[in-house]
Amino acid sequence: MTRIPEKDRDILEQAMYLPMLLTILEMDRILFDKGSFKLKQPYLELIDETITAVQYDLKKTKDAMRKGQMKVEEITWDEAFTMFLFIYKGYEEKHNYFNPRIRNRVQELMEFYLYKRFK
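Structure tokens predicted for YhjD:
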């Protein structure tokens, strides 16, 4: 059983997912920049604005973690699972995440930041 309340666990998970999303967006920006699009500037601006929004939310997440005495660290990973260490007010908990679930959650976040947040 976990000692971490659901609200704080959500913050810790955001601290896991948002850096992954930033990495993907930065890599995609490079691909768009090198791509042979006729009008690449609108795509680059969309990605840049999305990166800015994700960075802002990541900063808020890190501030909440600092305030709540929380940390998250990746411990191990293999083809199927990634293990993270959650440190919450001095307590340590290890959590295993199924890699396809991580990918799906990052994809959901990407969809949210790219267009669903405007609805």
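The mean pLDDT is 96.
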